[in-house]
């Protein structure tokens, strides 16, 4: 067979291949790369607080917060909060949402397998589901080839190792993609249970409530200007979904307070993690990033105003990007989520090494990065993603002596 005919035949077969098969191939290839990187670091891992030297893959995959999820799956949540010597609430399992460890616990009981194996299998399964849902979501607004390359960026991205360890991120990513898919299609009734589980997997209920509020206002405005109808049934459905999201956004705070008898149990527990940086302080919305700017300025030994200025410029650039053509092509609903979740992080999160992981729910934005069709651009971007994986594992996952850079 001539080379030209063979090439044509391969192109035809590729075009006839089902979209989900293409996504599956991308996903498997990405897991081979990421697993190889994690196994390399496991082989050079020294003894630490969670494992002995050179642990196996599953033990290496359950360190850091994975151990907290193990505690929750094994014994649940404490009814009494730990108190430090100076009277503050210390770190405890209450900082972690229950959906992921509950599912892992259920499958442990059904299969008889241990936590590390079940947790990794659950994470990988949801990671595949997230890749499939991301394609379906982006295919609503972008060509199929662009959507597939966006999946490549998601699967090979710098943060993709977190998708196959004992963390809730892959489960949350799947639910975010599913929720956005239903929102874009305006299937508000089906959206409600997805929001409920999503908000109990990772903190996101308030951010999605804001995205829904923006969605409702946008649809109402388009209806008022005669661009698009907004039937009463959909008005009620979207309002109910937004209300459920807002309620679920504070549900875990209320549950933690009720079980422990301390109304601020959840927030105080979360604040315990930043105490190592700035001591114990109350949460004042929209101040953590600027408090962190002072801390990092001292660490880097540079003027505080320089870090604050850089932060302000970064916020301005990110906000501007949402109005560029590649992001506009994603549609308003995906951009509403990107803006809402970013605003949520800006309001409550103290930036440190976990910042990269907490940016993962912004992954639908890869649809904007995937739009240029230049082969050189795409190859360079994938190589950069793989190098980013290496950098993230080295910085945040691998435990190098006294390590203050948790993932």
From TrEMBL:
InterPro entries: PIG-V/Gpi18
Pathway: Glycolipid biosynthesis; glycosylphosphatidylinositol-anchor biosynthesis
GO function terms (MF aspect): glycosyltransferase activity
Keyword annotations of the record: Endoplasmic reticulum, Glycosyltransferase, GPI-anchor biosynthesis, Membrane, Transferase, Transmembrane, Transmembrane helix
Alphabetical list of Pfam families matching this protein: Mannosyl_trans2 (PF04188)
Residue stretches spanning the membrane: 19-42, 106-130, 137-159, 165-184, 191-216, 236-259, 302-324, 336-356, 376-399
Membrane topology note: Multi-pass membrane protein
Compartment annotation: Endoplasmic reticulum membrane
Protein name, per record: Mannosyltransferase family protein
Organism (species): Antiquaquibacter soli
């Amino acid at each position: 067979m001539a080379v030209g005919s063979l090439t044509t035949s391969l192109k035809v077969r590729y075009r006839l291949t089902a979209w989900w098969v293409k996504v599956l191939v991308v996903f498997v290839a990405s897991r081979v790369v990421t697993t190889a990187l994690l196994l390399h670091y496991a082989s050079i891992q020294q003894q630490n607080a969670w494992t002995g030297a050179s642990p196996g893959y599953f033990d290496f995959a359950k360190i850091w917060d994975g151990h907290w999820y193990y505690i929750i799956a094994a014994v649940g949540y404490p009814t009494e909060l730990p108190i430090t010597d100076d009277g503050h609430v210390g770190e405890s399992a209450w900082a972690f949402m229950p959906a992921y460890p509950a599912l892992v616990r259920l499958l442990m009981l059904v299969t008889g397998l241990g936590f590390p194996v079940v947790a990794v299998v659950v994470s990988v399964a949801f990671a595949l589901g997230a890749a499939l849902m991301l394609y379906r979501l982006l295919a609503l607004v972008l060509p199929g080839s662009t959507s597939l390359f966006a999946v490549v960026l998601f699967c090979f991205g710098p943060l993709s190792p977190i998708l196959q360890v004992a963390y809730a991120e892959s489960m949350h990513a799947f639910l975010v993609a599913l929720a956005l898919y239903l929102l874009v299609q305006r299937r508000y009734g089906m959206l409600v249970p997805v929001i409920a589980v999503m908000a109990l997997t990772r903190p996101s209920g308030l951010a999605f409530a804001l995205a829904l509020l923006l969605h409702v206002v946008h649809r109402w405005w388009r209806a008022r200007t005669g661009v698009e109808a907004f039937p009463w049934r959909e008005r009620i459905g979207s309002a109910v979904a937004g209300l459920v999201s807002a309620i679920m956004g504070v549900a875990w705070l209320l549950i933690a307070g009720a079980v422990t008898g301390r109304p601020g149990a959840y927030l105080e527990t979360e604040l315990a993690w930043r105490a190592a940086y700035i001591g114990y302080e109350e949460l004042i919305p929209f101040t953590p990033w600027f408090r962190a700017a002072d801390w990092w300025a001292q660490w880097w030994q540079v003027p505080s105003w320089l870090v604050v200025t850089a932060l302000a410029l970064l916020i301005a650039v990110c906000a501007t990007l949402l109005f560029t053509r590649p992001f506009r092509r994603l549609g308003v609903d995906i951009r509403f989520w990107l803006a809402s979740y970013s605003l949520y992080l800006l309001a409550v999160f103290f930036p440190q090494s976990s910042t990269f992981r907490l940016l993962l729910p912004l992954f639908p934005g890869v649809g904007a990065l995937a739009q240029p069709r230049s082969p050189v651009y795409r190859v360079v971007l994938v190589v950069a993603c793989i190098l980013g994986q290496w950098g993230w594992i080295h910085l945040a996952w691998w435990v190098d002596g006294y390590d203050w850079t948790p993932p």
